[in-house]
Specification:
α2 packs parallel to α5, α4 runs antiparallel to α6 and α11 packs across α18. Helix content is 76%, strand content 0%. The protein is globular. The chain has 18 helices and no strands. The protein has one domain: MFS general substrate transporter like domains (Growth Hormone, Chain: A). The chain is mainly alpha-helical.
């Protein structure tokens, strides 16, 4: 995302300023010799970049919703390997399209090729769907599942934050071709790794209209197929948390990049890369370290409530920041961003048995795709507010996160009332698994005397 953002900004700055001689990766606030012209032209570049990113993301997100519905509906027929391989291949096609546009300096509409390919194959949401399904297959139905999913998200984030540093350095110190080539090669390696993974949960079924109806009923079963009213209430609250939470995160990541390049900060690609690394390292290390350590003290999603409160303060600080010190203060508050969604994902997974994990995560992925589509329009709020208050969108994020905090409190209240039932279900499932293992045939040790051979 850092690569695409800077590449678009550079291409559009060339259109606005003509044959520029300066480097927008190190001097995003261009034309400093004429402040009045710089302000108007800088706003225009910011607005154009935001607008074209919104168009690309809208195209991909709308297609992602349809693709994730397909991947979730036929989760058992496809198998876990295919559910990872298909969206990773789409992401690779998009990385290759960015490389081609940068190499041949093609018109920007050629980037739609990669957007469409990534969208119809599931995109990042499809990758998350396959990853979480794989984890649910190999973890028991207890707090270890919540921990496993949190660790997966934390490790993914740490790797992504490291890539931000490399991308920032390569963007500013080399041409755009080097980071684009690096991204494309990394994506191809991921395709190979996914192809080598052992397959799981694949059931051979003949594709038919009846299978489609059956799979669709299975997909929505976490919401309508459960007779327990308490579980239904928790699922509805969790769905609302997903929509609001992912809408914020999706919009925030894109707007913050443009915000750091805007006045009065005017950060270079290297500075933004290091800042992104620090932010992602803080909240992902918090997931990896604090979730395991605090599991015994903070049950349910109580740690997520603390994280949401910290995020509200962080976004308010972003909104009124006017120097670098405020941005670094906001960085310290970013530890809680990953808690709400990771914990509610793990706790809702504990509400269902193994057979319902596919439909559950498919529903979550669909909600995630929808929230991404909703979050795209936050880019238009940022564009419209540039003229009077560039930080206005962060106040909107703070309000939306406050809603998430309230919903998490409701979920925690419902979860406490259901906790005893949940513990009994987990014990019963673990006991059934132990009983199944004990009934497996064991090769008896031979105690019979050796056969004697008669002499003829």
């Amino acid at each position: 995302m850092l690569l695409l953002n800077h590449y678009l900004y550079n291409r559009l700055a060339r259109e606005v300023f003509g044959n520029i001689t300066f480097d927008t990766t190190s001097q995003p606030c261009v034309n400093e010799t004429d402040p009045s012209k710089s302000a108007s032209d800088g706003d225009r570049v910011q607005s154009m970049t935001s607008s074209i990113m919104m168009k690309f993301d809208t195209t991909g997100s709308v297609l992602e919703v349809v693709a994730v519905l397909f991947l979730g509906t036929f989760s058992t027929s496809l198998g876990r390997k295919a559910q990872l391989l298909i969206p990773i291949s789409g992401y690779t096609v998009r990385a290759l399209s960015i490389l081609a546009v940068a190499f041949w300096d093609l018109p920007l509409p050629w980037l739609y090729v990669g957007c469409v390919a990534e969208g119809i194959m599931g995109g990042k949401t499809g990758i998350y769907l396959g990853s979480y399904l794989y984890v649910s297959d190999i973890t028991p139905r207890n707090q270890k599942r919540t921990l496993g999913m949190s660790l997966l998200e934390g490790i993914r984030g740490i790797m992504g934050s490291s890539i931000n540093i490399l991308s920032g350095q390569m963007i500013q110190r080399t041409t755009f071709l080097v980071p684009a080539l690096f991204t494309a090669c990394g994506s191809l390696i991921c395709v190979v790794m996914a192809a080598l993974m052992p397959n799981r949960m694949q059931i051979s079924e003949k594709w038919s209209a009846e299978l489609l109806k059956k799979s669709w009923r299975t997909l929505i079963s976490p919401f309508v197929g459960n007779k327990d009213k308490q579980v239904k209430k928790m699922m509805l609250v969790a769905a609302a948390v997903y929509v609001f939470g992912f809408s914020v995160i999706y919009s925030l990541d894109r707007i913050r990049l443009l915000y750091l390049m805007y006045r009065p900060f005017c950060w270079s690609a290297i500075n933004i890369g290091w800042y992104q690394f620090g932010r992602q390292a803080i909240f992902n290390l918090s997931i990896i370290i604090l979730v395991p350590l605090c599991q015994g003290c903070f049950h349910g999603v109580s740690l997520g409530i603390i994280g949401a409160a910290a995020s509200v303060a962080e976004y308010v600080l972003y909104a009124f920041a006017d120097d670098d010190a405020h941005l670094y203060a906001a960085l310290a508050l970013s530890f809680g961003q990953g808690f709400p969604l990771n914990l509610i994902r793990g706790e809702t997974s504990r509400l269902f048995g193994t057979e319902k994990q596919g439909p559950l995560f498919a529903c979550m992925a669909v909600l995630e795709s929808i929230s991404f589509a909703v979050g795209i329009f936050m880019m238009s709020i940022y564009t419209m507010s540039l003229g009077f208050f560039a930080g206005f969108s962060f106040l909107v994020f703070a309000v939306m996160t406050l809603i998430v905090l309230i919903l998490l409190c409701v979920f925690q209240y419902l979860w406490k009332g259901y906790r005893s039932v949940l513990m009994q279900q987990e014990k019963a499932e673990n006991g059934a698994e132990s009983h199944r293992v004990s009934l497996l045939p064991v090769e008896p040790e031979s105690s019979a005397p050796p056969l004697e051979v008669e002499d003829k």
